[in-house]
Amino acid sequence: MSDAPERESSPQAQEPPSPPEDLEQPAPQGAVCGEHPERQAYFTCPRCGGYACVFCWHPSVRRCHACIRRDPTEAAPPIPWESEEALGGFERYWRTLATALRPIKSAPAFARRGVGPALRFMLLSALPLVVVSGIIPHTRTLLFSGQMQVQLIGQPSVLEIVLDVLRAIAVEVGSHGVELACLYLPFTSLIRAYAPPEKRHAAAKVVLYRLWLMVLISGVAHVGSWALLPPEPGPLVTGVLQDAFLILSALMPALMFISMGGVARLACGLSLGMTLLVVLVPMVLWTVVLPLTGVAVEVILPPVPQLE
Ligand SMILES: [Zn+2]
Ligand SMILES: [Zn+2]
Fold first, then answer.
1. 79 CA to middle of ligand 2, Å?
2. Could you report the per-residue pLDDT of 206-221, keeping only the tens digit for each?
3. Residue 230 in this model has a pLDDT that exceeds 50
4. Residue 64 lies in a domain
5. Which residue in 2, 204, 238, 276 has its CB near the most CB atoms, within 10 A?
């Protein structure tokens, strides 16, 4: 104790010393995990003082698994969308989007009650992307070509255009609805089966809050190509864009699945094996169904008319 640095007690210091919870403390020699008495412990939980093995330690939130099971909401601040801080609507919105980049650290927050805010956030984040991803490629009376041009195809009446736009939106909402169901239904059912009742809503919340990840790329690609591309882009431009599109198309669902796994483990308190199971089942189903929804959309819609 006598070797504590004296500078910390200086009256000049403005910053209060870090609370002990911020320090990662190793477990003492010979200590065993509180959950697994047969395993050596490597960490001391700053919250409860218990010892944790590598499997029971959550470094991103500095908690042992027992603390996470007891009260996950204590390990992360609320999602900004639900925060009681005096934040403006836009700030809540952008900060909530940004939590997707910290899928593990923010995961315990989804254990907080109330699915309503998550549903409203989904309607304001994923739905607009789905609408533009429907209108731009699927209308057959309007042609959205580069540099924000919109041309009429043939001589449609206003009613025909309105019905065409509504059909385009409905087809896209339907196809994404099927994809959402492939994620949502198995994930929430499995969590319902294995998580304690008071934590089951976390599964629905994370899918709704993060659904925009699954539709961002198609929305941005359609708006981007409508706004930015020259009407006849060269093969180099389209090649580079296609590569970027493919990489991001894989990255965004990966973030979604990490988010879902983080919630299963850190908000619902599932074991590692169970976490893998509850994420792998929807992931495989989604991967299988994704190309089928694309084919179904092609079958439902009439062919693209040729411009004269
Ligand atoms: Zn603990
Ligand atoms: Zn353990």
1. 28
2. 999 999 999 998 888 8
3. yes
4. yes
5. 204
Could you give the CA distance from residue 10 to residue 153 in angstroms, rounded to a whole number? Answer: 76
Both tokens assigned to 122: 């989904």
**What's the gap in Å between 300 CA and the centre of ligand 2?**
52
- The residues with which 44 forms a beta bridge, in sequence order, are 25, 51
Instruction: Give the range of the structural domain holding residue 208, as residue numbers without chain letter.
Output: 82-300
2 within domain boundaries: no
Give the pLDDT of residue 6.
39
Rounded to the nearest angstrom, the distance between the alpha carbon of 52 and the centre of ligand 1 is 8
Same domain, 52 and 172: no
Overall number of domains in the chain: 2
DSSP 302: P
Tell me the average pLDDT across 156-183. Answer: 93
- C-alpha 298 to ligand 1 mean position (Å): 53
Packing angle between helix 212-228 and helix 116-138, nearest 10 degrees?
A: 30
Instruction: Write the CB contacts of 185 (distance below 8 Å, at least 6 apart in sequence).
Output: 282
Distances (CA, A) of 155 to 19, 167, 187, 222, 305: 70, 18, 47, 24, 12
Handedness of CA 91, 260, 112, 48 (dihedral sign): negative
Whether residues 46 and 146 fall in one domain: no
- The DSSP letter of residue 77 is P
234 and 90, same domain (yes or no) = yes
Most confident of the following: 109-118, 230-239, 242-251, 295-304:
109-118
